[in-house]
Amino acid sequence: MPRKFLVVVDDSPEFEAALRYASRRARSTGGRVALLRIIPGGSDEHWAGVREEIQREQRAEAEALLNRLGEEATARSGAQPIFLIEEGEPHDAIRKVCGEDSEIKILVLAAGSGARGPGPLVSAVLKGGGFGGRKLPVTIVPGELTDAEIEDLA
Q: pTM here?
């Protein structure tokens, strides 16, 4: 079974660096990319009907985004990626996915640069501890890497 490189799909400008790195690394090691899109969970029972409609829309948007990004990941890695959609907080969703799939061997995140700091995902992962009861290596890719630099590193 090929090892999987988990990439959390967010709306940050540096996300593309994580996707490019994970795809290139998967190609060079015979692995696969797993793309995880996390959508916010709802909790207000009073507005259950509205919440369900919002969740349906968010899921449809997540599926469309993953399909679009999947084309890029396939072209770069040589293999169809795995699409995952979870609801809730990022660290909890990452922990759940990693706990359910022992083939996920590396979490790939991209760090922001400058005054913004490393970004919310990197900060959450560094504070949060383990993933699904497992020790999981985390690769943090500088968000400003070029394709040539990623090619050289991966």
A: 0.88
Task: State the Cα–Cα distance between residues 146 and 3, nearest whole angstrom.
Answer: 25
Contacts for 77 with CB less than 8 Å, ≥ 6 apart: 22, 23, 24, 26, 27, 31, 32, 33
| pLDDT for 112 | 82
What pLDDT is stored for residue 133 in this prediction?
64
pLDDT of residue 52: 84
Question: With a cut of 50, which residues of the chain have pLDDT below it?
Answer: none
HSE-CB for 10 with a 13 A CA cutoff? 24
Give the residue from 75, 77, 94 showing the smallest Cα distance to 32. Answer: 77
Domains and CATH numbers, the chain: 4-153 (3.40.50.620)
Residue type, 96: K
Alpha helices (H) along the chain: 15-29, 48-77, 90-100, 120-128, 147-153
Contact 127, 95 (CB under 8 A): no
Beta bridge partners of residue 108, listed in sequence order:
7, 139
